[in-house]
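retry 2 of 3: previous attempt timed out while embedding cytidine-5'-monophosphate. Reduced batch size to 1 and resubmitted. Inputs unchanged:
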Amino acid sequence: MNAAGPKVLLGVAGGIAAYKSAELLRRLTETGHSVRVLPTASALNFVGAATFEALSGQPVNVGVFSDVPSVQHVKLGQEADLVVVAPATADLLARAVQGRADDLLTGSLLTARCPVLFAPAMHTEMWEHPATRDNVALLRSRGVVVLEPASGRLTGKDTGPGRLPDPAEIAEFARLLLERPDALPRDLEGRRVVVSAGGTREPLDPVRYLGNRSSGRQGYALARVAAQRGARVTLVAGHTADLADPAAVDVVRVGSALEMRDAMHTAVADADAVVMAAAVADFRPVSLAAHKIKKSGNEPEPVRLTTNPDILVELVGARKPGRLVVGFAAETGDEHTDALEFGRQKLARKGCDLLVVNAVGEGRAFEVPDNAGWLLGADGGETELANGSKALLASRVWDAVAERL
Ligand code: C5P
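retry 2 succeeded.
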């Protein structure tokens, strides 16, 4: 890898979502990637070359006859650590399938030997057309990662699958493929999975609640990675940081632990795997005041708490044969017992099939993009999860799930 950060080629094809590639470019450069932008001629109808040059700090060329002495159409691909094409139009996918080399982007796709990530964006009809379906299948069979698009509003009044995933999400997958090129196999195709994420909020009165600092990032990463490995995913999300909805995932929003419990029991009905990554409050106020609790001159009333149900334990108890249940444990360890040992005890107590143990505290795991820990199996298996992105940890969890399903 390059000393100035990984070398990324950012291909931009000519669709309206090309305007979002500028945001993706900014995210990639800000996180230390050296990015060379390769727009197609039609992409420049949507975004000017000056925008890409200013944001990347590198020249922008389209055709194979630009800067001929340095043999750009061969060199750029050969030297890249990752190629990201966002947006990838139906036409670009078709040209990539055919191995065309009529511009700098397609030429570079032929010479690249690094991971290649396509983020398609097009109208639903184009995405669902047999020609595009076949092209996507063929590209995937060659080891290219072709993301599932998001659903939602397209240009005009149309809605449906075909939206470009959020630039933050594409950037997360770019980092993941640099960390682990084989992180997104399509091994969950035909599977249904449910993931919980974020923290619950336990209401005290109409305006106040007891909450926690969970960002939801790990659960979102689990949902994103599962969807791109082919699963049908429901994400039950409590309160989170400002995170984009994952592409190709059904999101159910909840507030309190009791709401999360109901949503989980409903969502898991036909699930093959369920992952409880949410930070569920252990306690809730015994009563919910009907009106905002007023300040009075007296001492405040103590808040009486009662215990919330343990959703993970309930899901284990209600599990159908063949369904895998995965829990999370954030542990600090104490003077007698380390985090891993606490994790082993928790796995036994909760009865789940897999438990991810995170060592937390001192800025680790909470509200940060990285994570590390151990993956413990009820079969006695223990795998260390090296430090890396939360998407990387998610990919290791889905490896273990896919292996056991
Ligand atoms: O007991 P502890 O809270 O450490 O357990 C963590 C695991 O249990 C996580 O998977 C969390 O989502 C789940 N949990 C739950 N319901 C609770 C508390 C935790 O499902 N009330």
